[in-house]
Amino acid sequence: MTKFILHQDRIFRSSLTACLAGLLLTLPSTLAAQRRVLTLQDCIDIALGESPLMEASRFDLLAATEEINAVRAMTLPQVLGSATPEIFSGGQTSAFAILTGSDTGRVHTVTGGLNIFDARLRYPLFQDGSILGLNVNDEPAIAGKRAQKEALAWTSQLKREDVIYRIADVFISTVSAENRTSLVDREVYLLERSVADIQEQEKQGTKLPIDLKITREQLKVARDLAKIIRTQAVAGKHEIARMLALPSASDIQLSSVLPDPSDPPRADQLLGISLNQHPSLHVQRAIVDKARQDYRLERFRLYPSVSLDGTALGAQDFNGPGNHIYTGAVTVSVPIWDFGAQRATVRSKMATYKAEEARLGAVAEDVTDQIVKTYEQICALGQNILTIQQDVGEADRNFKIAAAQQQQGGGQPLTTDELELRLLEKRDELEALQAQRLVLYAAMQRASGGLWKWIP
Fold this sequence. Notes:
The chain has 456 residues and is α+β, with helices and mostly antiparallel strands. It is 65% helix and 13% strand. The chain has one domain: Up-down Bundle (Outer membrane efflux proteins (OEP)), CATH 1.20.1600. Strands 1, 2, 3, 4 and 5 form a five-stranded antiparallel beta sheet that branches.
């Protein structure tokens, strides 16, 4: 019991040391994040270090590694030992005698002790496909655990891309909302001024009440939009603070400049040779290998198993030299009859293996479908952005002409405000679409499993 408690203490101290080391490593980055303006790449780097999902993946890989070591150790010799000290006291009696408290002082009472030592050796020579524990690369149980670890490693890569997509989505939406705030505020200001001008012109009889009603409705919509955008920016900062493990959203200063990535490669390049390297396919291949090793393991259990067993037994009283016995045996265990249970298990594992092989094609189809859909969305959104850019250029030209005419005394202020509102609406729409395209770029990186990276 004492040894077990000491072992637990060592584990606790090691875990505490690892936690303190991890805290010291992440603390500088967290403090630095509170002092500087964060770009998207900064947020991604910090989020990957602070993500509970990535921490869980690292522990999963550590657990899988230890499982491999445990299975490997089970194929090697095992030695168990025990020691049993015994102390006895008693006397002779007949089968029908009744022992009472007065009997303790009678003659013929014997008192003594015995110390028994026992050591047992077991070495699986041939069992579950293991031959003397030497074929570590082909033994089914070890190979199955190794395939399980490989699947976890590739799954960790997919989880990493999920973390990158989440922080990229929140960052882009938040920065876009902050950038759009000035545009919407300008719209609100112009509409408030337009309402005042229309009210004066209505008194003069040059405007109708319907004109004032329409402008007020536009003002209400603009104010609601400004409120929504501000709320989105505040909520986004709180989410970023949570993902970066910062104490407060007020500590965050985000760069107002969003990345300007190049267009993604052609669809045939994404779906060509690089598709075979997708992490999802690697995960499924590892699962197929794991199912294959499980099938092999159950097949080997149909065969006899051979083990070497040895025992050393020693008995010694507290006064004499004692005696000992040594035994050694080779045990052959042969499965004779189990009503077909093991054969049914073999067939079940075989069917599972075939199912996982077939599922590999389904995973490839899912990956292809996700990449194609995201690529189509990027292309469609790119066409909309080109159209809006043309509208922005045209609205900017009309506004500048009207502003120049107004400066020369030949234009109406209300007309100039309407043209500026038109320009601001188009610029706000363009800003929202460009941010949406960046989110789709991040989605494309996740869909490709990180084979294509959109941040330069």
